[in-house]
Known about the structure:
Elements: E1 7-8, H1 24-27, E2 29-30, E3 45-50, H2 65-73, E4 85-91, H3 97-113, E5 117-121, H4 127-138, E6 142-147, H5 165-171, E7 177-185, H6 192-200, E8 204-207, H7 208-213, H8 218-223, E9 227-231, H9 253-265, E10 271-275, H10 286-302, E11 317-322, E12 331-336, E13 342-345, E14 361-364, H11 366-373, H12 379-388
Parallel strand pairs: 2-4, 3-4, 3-5, 5-10, 6-7, 6-9, 7-8, 9-10
Antiparallel strand pairs: 1-4, 11-12, 12-13, 13-14
Helix pairs in contact: 2-10, 3-4, 4-5, 9-10
Amino acid sequence: MEIAMFFEPVDNxxxxxxEHHKRLGDILRIHTRxxxxxxxxxxxxAILGVREDRRSVDNEGCAYAAEQVRQQLYRLFPxxxxxxxxxxxxxxxxxxxxxxxFALSSAVAQLIxxxxxxxxxxxxxDLTYANYMAYExxxxxxxxxxxxxxxxxxxxxxxxxxxxxxxxxxLHQPNYLFNFTNIGYQSYYVDHKxxxxxxxxxxxxxxxxxxxxxxEEVEPMVRNADMISVDISSVRQSDAPGxxxxxxxxxxxxxxxxxxRYAGMSDKLTSIGFYEYNPTYxxxxxxxxxxxxxxxxxxxxxxxxxxxxxxxxxxxxLKYTVAIRNHQEEIVFYKSKRTDRWWMEVTCPASVRSKYxxxxxxxxxxxxxxxxxxxxxxxxxxxxxxxxx
Length: 389
Protein backbone atom coordinates (compact mmCIF):
# COMPACT_ATOMS: atom_id res chain seq x y z
CA MET A 1 0.00 0.00 0.00
CA GLU A 2 1.20 3.50 -0.85
CA ILE A 3 0.70 5.42 2.39
CA ALA A 4 2.04 8.79 1.18
CA MET A 5 -1.47 9.77 0.04
CA PHE A 6 -2.61 9.84 3.68
CA PHE A 7 -0.11 12.54 4.72
CA GLU A 8 0.30 16.29 4.52
CA PRO A 9 3.87 17.64 4.59
CA VAL A 10 5.44 19.30 7.61
CA ASP A 11 5.17 23.06 7.69
CA ASN A 12 7.54 25.41 9.53
CA UNK A 13 10.60 23.18 9.69
CA UNK A 14 12.97 25.12 11.96
CA UNK A 15 16.30 26.24 10.49
CA UNK A 16 18.92 25.09 12.98
CA UNK A 17 22.06 26.50 11.28
CA UNK A 18 24.66 24.45 13.13
CA GLU A 19 26.71 22.48 10.63
CA HIS A 20 29.12 21.12 13.27
CA HIS A 21 26.58 19.70 15.72
CA LYS A 22 23.78 17.68 14.17
CA ARG A 23 20.39 17.77 15.86
CA LEU A 24 17.39 15.53 15.23
CA GLY A 25 16.01 18.09 12.79
CA ASP A 26 19.19 17.73 10.74
CA ILE A 27 19.14 13.95 10.50
CA LEU A 28 15.41 13.23 10.23
CA ARG A 29 14.06 12.42 6.78
CA ILE A 30 11.22 14.95 6.77
CA HIS A 31 8.17 15.05 4.51
CA THR A 32 8.23 18.60 3.10
CA ARG A 33 6.54 20.32 0.18
CA UNK A 34 9.90 20.82 -1.51
CA UNK A 35 11.37 17.38 -0.88
CA UNK A 36 8.25 15.23 -1.02
CA UNK A 37 7.50 12.07 0.94
CA UNK A 38 10.68 10.56 2.43
CA UNK A 39 12.28 7.30 1.34
CA UNK A 40 11.51 4.73 4.06
CA UNK A 41 14.07 2.06 3.19
CA UNK A 42 16.28 1.52 6.25
CA UNK A 43 14.14 3.69 8.56
CA UNK A 44 13.62 2.35 12.09
CA UNK A 45 11.19 4.84 13.67
CA ALA A 46 8.65 7.09 11.95
CA ILE A 47 6.91 10.08 13.53
CA LEU A 48 3.41 10.94 12.34
CA GLY A 49 1.04 13.63 13.53
CA VAL A 50 -2.76 13.39 13.45
CA ARG A 51 -4.81 16.59 13.24
CA GLU A 52 -7.98 15.15 14.70
CA ASP A 53 -9.90 16.31 17.77
CA ARG A 54 -13.55 16.13 16.70
CA ARG A 55 -14.17 13.47 19.32
CA SER A 56 -12.10 14.98 22.07
CA VAL A 57 -13.90 15.48 25.37
CA ASP A 58 -13.75 19.13 26.41
CA ASN A 59 -10.24 19.53 24.97
CA GLU A 60 -10.78 21.01 21.53
CA GLY A 61 -7.53 22.29 20.09
CA CYS A 62 -5.43 19.16 20.68
CA ALA A 63 -5.45 18.59 16.90
CA TYR A 64 -2.62 21.14 16.64
CA ALA A 65 -0.22 19.31 18.94
CA ALA A 66 2.17 17.77 16.42
CA GLU A 67 3.54 21.04 15.02
CA GLN A 68 4.43 22.34 18.49
CA VAL A 69 6.05 19.07 19.56
CA ARG A 70 8.11 18.98 16.36
CA GLN A 71 9.48 22.47 17.01
CA GLN A 72 10.94 21.16 20.27
CA LEU A 73 11.91 17.67 19.09
CA TYR A 74 13.93 18.88 16.09
CA ARG A 75 16.14 20.96 18.39
CA LEU A 76 17.28 18.01 20.51
CA PHE A 77 20.59 16.26 19.93
CA PRO A 78 20.44 12.52 19.12
CA UNK A 79 21.64 10.18 21.86
CA UNK A 80 23.96 8.39 19.41
CA UNK A 81 25.13 8.36 15.82
CA UNK A 82 23.46 6.51 12.96
CA UNK A 83 19.86 6.87 14.13
CA UNK A 84 17.50 6.32 11.19
CA UNK A 85 14.32 8.32 11.70
CA UNK A 86 11.64 9.88 9.51
CA UNK A 87 8.88 12.42 10.03
CA UNK A 88 6.05 11.51 7.66
CA UNK A 89 4.01 14.65 8.34
CA UNK A 90 0.37 14.72 9.45
CA UNK A 91 -2.44 12.32 8.61
CA UNK A 92 -4.95 14.26 6.52
CA UNK A 93 -8.12 15.10 8.41
CA UNK A 94 -10.88 13.05 6.81
CA UNK A 95 -14.32 14.26 5.79
CA UNK A 96 -15.62 12.13 8.67
CA UNK A 97 -13.72 11.04 11.76
CA UNK A 98 -13.91 7.45 10.54
CA UNK A 99 -11.94 8.49 7.45
CA UNK A 100 -9.13 9.71 9.71
CA UNK A 101 -9.28 6.45 11.66
CA PHE A 102 -8.98 4.45 8.44
CA ALA A 103 -6.00 6.48 7.22
CA LEU A 104 -4.19 6.17 10.54
CA SER A 105 -4.82 2.43 10.96
CA SER A 106 -3.78 1.73 7.36
CA ALA A 107 -0.58 3.76 7.68
CA VAL A 108 0.36 2.17 11.01
CA ALA A 109 -0.31 -1.35 9.71
CA GLN A 110 1.87 -0.77 6.65
CA LEU A 111 4.71 0.70 8.69
CA ILE A 112 4.68 -2.24 11.10
CA UNK A 113 4.72 -4.65 8.15
CA UNK A 114 7.84 -2.90 6.90
CA UNK A 115 9.51 -3.18 10.32
CA UNK A 116 9.14 0.55 11.09
CA UNK A 117 7.88 1.63 14.51
CA UNK A 118 5.30 4.47 14.33
CA UNK A 119 5.32 7.22 16.97
CA UNK A 120 1.92 8.93 16.82
CA UNK A 121 1.41 12.50 18.01
CA UNK A 122 -2.30 13.18 18.46
CA UNK A 123 -4.89 14.53 18.54
CA UNK A 124 -7.42 13.14 20.96
CA UNK A 125 -7.06 9.75 22.61
CA ASP A 126 -9.87 8.09 20.65
CA LEU A 127 -7.14 7.68 18.01
CA THR A 128 -5.96 4.77 20.17
CA TYR A 129 -8.87 2.85 18.66
CA ALA A 130 -7.53 3.53 15.16
CA ASN A 131 -4.07 2.40 16.27
CA TYR A 132 -5.63 -0.83 17.58
CA MET A 133 -7.44 -1.40 14.28
CA ALA A 134 -4.06 -1.57 12.54
CA TYR A 135 -3.43 -4.85 14.36
CA GLU A 136 -6.72 -6.23 13.08
CA UNK A 137 -5.36 -5.65 9.58
CA UNK A 138 -2.25 -7.55 10.65
CA UNK A 139 -4.30 -10.34 12.26
CA UNK A 140 -2.25 -10.03 15.45
CA UNK A 141 -3.53 -10.59 19.01
CA UNK A 142 -2.04 -7.85 21.15
CA UNK A 143 -1.57 -6.30 24.57
CA UNK A 144 -2.32 -2.61 25.11
CA UNK A 145 -0.86 -0.40 27.84
CA UNK A 146 -2.43 2.97 28.60
CA UNK A 147 -0.82 5.61 30.82
CA UNK A 148 -3.93 7.48 31.89
CA UNK A 149 -5.57 8.83 35.06
CA UNK A 150 -8.87 7.30 33.87
CA UNK A 151 -9.99 4.04 32.24
CA UNK A 152 -11.87 5.65 29.29
CA UNK A 153 -14.59 3.01 29.38
CA UNK A 154 -17.51 5.41 28.85
CA UNK A 155 -20.93 3.94 28.18
CA UNK A 156 -21.48 1.35 25.49
CA UNK A 157 -24.42 3.24 23.97
CA UNK A 158 -22.37 6.42 23.56
CA UNK A 159 -20.56 7.45 20.38
CA UNK A 160 -16.88 6.58 20.31
CA UNK A 161 -14.87 9.45 21.78
CA UNK A 162 -11.73 10.10 23.80
CA UNK A 163 -13.41 8.94 27.02
CA UNK A 164 -14.89 5.69 25.66
CA UNK A 165 -12.38 4.23 23.18
CA UNK A 166 -11.59 1.27 25.47
CA UNK A 167 -15.21 0.11 25.47
CA UNK A 168 -15.19 0.14 21.68
CA UNK A 169 -11.97 -1.90 21.59
CA UNK A 170 -13.38 -4.47 24.05
CA LEU A 171 -16.63 -4.87 22.12
CA HIS A 172 -15.11 -4.88 18.66
CA GLN A 173 -15.49 -8.14 16.74
CA PRO A 174 -13.41 -9.98 15.80
CA ASN A 175 -11.46 -9.13 18.90
CA TYR A 176 -7.67 -9.03 18.88
CA LEU A 177 -7.13 -7.77 22.43
CA PHE A 178 -5.45 -10.24 24.79
CA ASN A 179 -4.75 -7.89 27.68
CA PHE A 180 -5.16 -4.25 28.68
CA THR A 181 -3.08 -2.57 31.36
CA ASN A 182 -3.76 0.84 32.86
CA ILE A 183 -0.79 2.52 34.52
CA GLY A 184 -1.37 5.38 36.94
CA TYR A 185 -5.13 5.68 37.36
CA GLN A 186 -6.31 8.11 40.03
CA SER A 187 -9.12 6.72 42.17
CA TYR A 188 -11.10 9.96 42.48
CA TYR A 189 -11.53 9.96 38.68
CA VAL A 190 -12.63 6.31 38.49
CA ASP A 191 -15.96 4.78 39.53
CA HIS A 192 -15.37 1.81 41.85
CA LYS A 193 -17.66 -0.23 39.59
CA UNK A 194 -15.20 0.38 36.76
CA UNK A 195 -12.38 -1.02 38.91
CA UNK A 196 -14.48 -4.14 39.51
CA UNK A 197 -15.20 -4.42 35.79
CA UNK A 198 -11.48 -4.25 35.00
CA UNK A 199 -10.85 -7.10 37.45
CA UNK A 200 -13.69 -9.17 35.99
CA UNK A 201 -12.24 -8.69 32.52
CA UNK A 202 -8.89 -9.92 33.87
CA UNK A 203 -7.27 -6.62 32.93
CA UNK A 204 -4.53 -4.95 34.97
CA UNK A 205 -4.94 -1.57 36.65
CA UNK A 206 -2.32 0.11 38.83
CA UNK A 207 -3.00 3.17 40.95
CA UNK A 208 -0.73 6.16 40.61
CA UNK A 209 0.63 5.90 44.16
CA UNK A 210 1.54 2.23 43.77
CA UNK A 211 3.35 2.87 40.50
CA UNK A 212 5.29 5.88 41.75
CA UNK A 213 6.36 4.00 44.90
CA UNK A 214 8.35 1.55 42.75
CA UNK A 215 8.74 2.81 39.20
CA GLU A 216 11.01 -0.10 38.23
CA GLU A 217 7.98 -2.42 38.40
CA VAL A 218 6.56 -0.57 35.38
CA GLU A 219 9.29 -2.04 33.16
CA PRO A 220 7.75 -5.54 32.82
CA MET A 221 4.31 -3.96 32.31
CA VAL A 222 5.42 -2.01 29.25
CA ARG A 223 7.71 -4.85 28.09
CA ASN A 224 4.55 -6.92 27.65
CA ALA A 225 2.84 -4.30 25.43
CA ASP A 226 2.47 -4.32 21.66
CA MET A 227 1.13 -0.76 21.66
CA ILE A 228 1.09 2.05 24.22
CA SER A 229 -1.24 5.02 24.54
CA VAL A 230 -0.10 7.99 26.66
CA ASP A 231 -2.63 10.60 27.79
CA ILE A 232 -0.66 13.75 28.66
CA SER A 233 -3.18 14.49 31.45
CA SER A 234 -1.48 11.65 33.36
CA VAL A 235 1.28 14.20 34.11
CA ARG A 236 0.67 16.75 36.85
CA GLN A 237 -0.27 20.26 35.77
CA SER A 238 2.91 21.84 37.11
CA ASP A 239 4.94 19.73 34.67
CA ALA A 240 2.46 19.58 31.77
CA PRO A 241 -0.13 22.40 31.76
CA GLY A 242 -1.06 21.80 28.09
CA UNK A 243 -4.46 20.19 28.63
CA UNK A 244 -7.77 21.86 29.41
CA UNK A 245 -8.48 19.37 32.20
CA UNK A 246 -4.95 19.14 33.61
CA UNK A 247 -4.81 17.94 37.22
CA UNK A 248 -2.57 19.03 40.11
CA UNK A 249 -1.72 15.36 40.72
CA UNK A 250 -0.09 12.85 38.41
CA UNK A 251 3.30 11.63 37.30
CA UNK A 252 6.32 13.91 37.32
CA UNK A 253 7.70 14.61 33.87
CA UNK A 254 10.91 12.67 34.51
CA UNK A 255 8.86 9.63 35.55
CA UNK A 256 7.04 9.59 32.20
CA UNK A 257 10.40 9.92 30.46
CA UNK A 258 11.60 6.84 32.35
CA UNK A 259 8.45 4.92 31.39
CA UNK A 260 8.82 5.81 27.71
CA ARG A 261 12.47 4.74 27.80
CA TYR A 262 11.37 1.37 29.19
CA ALA A 263 8.85 1.20 26.35
CA GLY A 264 11.48 1.91 23.73
CA MET A 265 13.66 -0.90 25.08
CA SER A 266 10.89 -3.49 24.66
CA ASP A 267 11.47 -5.81 21.70
CA LYS A 268 7.74 -6.58 21.62
CA LEU A 269 6.44 -3.01 21.28
CA THR A 270 5.56 -1.97 17.73
CA SER A 271 3.71 1.36 18.14
CA ILE A 272 3.22 4.19 20.64
CA GLY A 273 0.99 7.26 20.72
CA PHE A 274 0.96 10.54 22.68
CA TYR A 275 -2.43 12.20 22.97
CA GLU A 276 -4.48 15.10 24.36
CA TYR A 277 -1.75 17.78 24.33
CA ASN A 278 -3.45 21.12 23.71
CA PRO A 279 -1.15 24.03 22.74
CA THR A 280 -3.87 26.54 23.69
CA TYR A 281 -3.09 25.93 27.37
CA UNK A 282 0.67 25.75 26.91
CA UNK A 283 1.77 29.32 26.13
CA UNK A 284 5.42 28.72 27.06
CA UNK A 285 5.68 25.40 25.23
CA UNK A 286 6.54 23.51 28.43
CA UNK A 287 4.31 20.52 27.64
CA UNK A 288 5.57 20.37 24.05
CA UNK A 289 9.12 20.23 25.41
CA UNK A 290 8.19 17.41 27.77
CA UNK A 291 6.55 15.32 25.03
CA UNK A 292 9.57 15.93 22.79
CA UNK A 293 11.82 14.69 25.59
CA UNK A 294 9.56 11.67 26.15
CA UNK A 295 9.94 10.80 22.46
CA UNK A 296 13.70 11.38 22.74
CA UNK A 297 13.88 8.90 25.62
CA UNK A 298 11.72 6.44 23.68
CA UNK A 299 14.11 6.62 20.73
CA UNK A 300 17.10 6.18 23.05
CA UNK A 301 15.43 3.09 24.50
CA UNK A 302 14.71 1.77 21.02
CA UNK A 303 18.39 1.87 20.11
CA UNK A 304 19.19 0.05 23.36
CA UNK A 305 17.15 -3.01 22.30
CA UNK A 306 19.04 -6.30 22.48
CA UNK A 307 16.46 -8.77 21.03
CA UNK A 308 15.98 -10.20 24.48
CA UNK A 309 13.05 -12.66 24.50
CA UNK A 310 13.40 -16.30 25.64
CA UNK A 311 11.30 -17.98 22.97
CA UNK A 312 14.09 -19.59 20.90
CA UNK A 313 17.61 -19.28 22.28
CA UNK A 314 16.86 -20.39 25.81
CA UNK A 315 20.52 -21.22 26.40
CA UNK A 316 21.04 -17.46 26.86
CA UNK A 317 18.80 -17.57 29.93
CA LEU A 318 18.96 -19.02 33.41
CA LYS A 319 15.97 -21.24 34.14
CA TYR A 320 14.40 -21.45 37.61
CA THR A 321 11.58 -23.87 38.45
CA VAL A 322 9.54 -23.14 41.57
CA ALA A 323 7.13 -25.65 43.14
CA ILE A 324 4.35 -24.07 45.19
CA ARG A 325 2.52 -25.94 47.93
CA ASN A 326 -1.11 -26.84 47.06
CA HIS A 327 -0.57 -25.68 43.49
CA GLN A 328 -0.47 -28.34 40.78
CA GLU A 329 1.64 -26.40 38.33
CA GLU A 330 5.31 -25.60 38.83
CA ILE A 331 6.18 -22.08 37.73
CA VAL A 332 9.12 -21.72 35.38
CA PHE A 333 11.10 -18.48 35.36
CA TYR A 334 13.74 -17.32 32.89
CA LYS A 335 16.39 -14.70 33.63
CA SER A 336 18.40 -13.14 30.82
CA LYS A 337 22.15 -13.51 31.22
CA ARG A 338 22.64 -10.28 29.25
CA THR A 339 20.12 -7.90 30.79
CA ASP A 340 18.99 -9.55 34.08
CA ARG A 341 15.38 -9.19 32.93
CA TRP A 342 12.86 -11.84 34.01
CA TRP A 343 10.02 -13.81 32.36
CA MET A 344 7.73 -16.53 33.65
CA GLU A 345 6.10 -19.28 31.64
CA VAL A 346 2.35 -19.64 32.15
CA THR A 347 0.80 -23.05 31.57
CA CYS A 348 -1.07 -22.90 28.28
CA PRO A 349 -3.29 -25.73 26.92
CA ALA A 350 -1.87 -27.38 23.81
CA SER A 351 -5.09 -26.62 21.92
CA VAL A 352 -4.47 -22.83 22.04
CA ARG A 353 -0.69 -22.75 22.42
CA SER A 354 -0.06 -21.82 18.78
CA LYS A 355 -2.69 -19.05 18.95
CA TYR A 356 -1.15 -17.49 22.06
CA UNK A 357 2.51 -18.28 21.41
CA UNK A 358 3.42 -14.61 22.04
CA UNK A 359 1.59 -14.47 25.38
CA UNK A 360 2.41 -17.46 27.56
CA UNK A 361 5.92 -16.15 28.25
CA UNK A 362 5.08 -13.18 30.48
CA UNK A 363 7.55 -10.42 31.36
CA UNK A 364 7.92 -10.16 35.12
CA UNK A 365 10.32 -8.94 37.78
CA UNK A 366 12.53 -10.43 40.45
CA UNK A 367 9.71 -9.58 42.87
CA UNK A 368 7.46 -12.13 41.13
CA UNK A 369 10.15 -14.78 41.52
CA UNK A 370 10.46 -13.93 45.22
CA UNK A 371 6.67 -14.21 45.58
CA UNK A 372 6.75 -17.70 44.09
CA UNK A 373 9.64 -18.70 46.35
CA UNK A 374 7.50 -17.64 49.31
CA UNK A 375 4.88 -20.22 48.29
CA UNK A 376 2.49 -17.79 46.65
CA UNK A 377 1.35 -17.56 43.03
CA UNK A 378 2.32 -14.18 41.48
CA UNK A 379 -0.67 -12.10 40.44
CA UNK A 380 0.76 -11.68 36.94
CA UNK A 381 0.95 -15.47 36.45
CA UNK A 382 -2.56 -16.07 37.76
CA UNK A 383 -4.07 -13.31 35.63
CA UNK A 384 -2.72 -14.78 32.40
CA UNK A 385 -3.47 -18.38 33.41
CA UNK A 386 -7.17 -17.54 33.81
CA UNK A 387 -7.28 -16.12 30.29
CA UNK A 388 -6.07 -19.44 28.88
CA UNK A 389 -8.71 -21.37 30.76
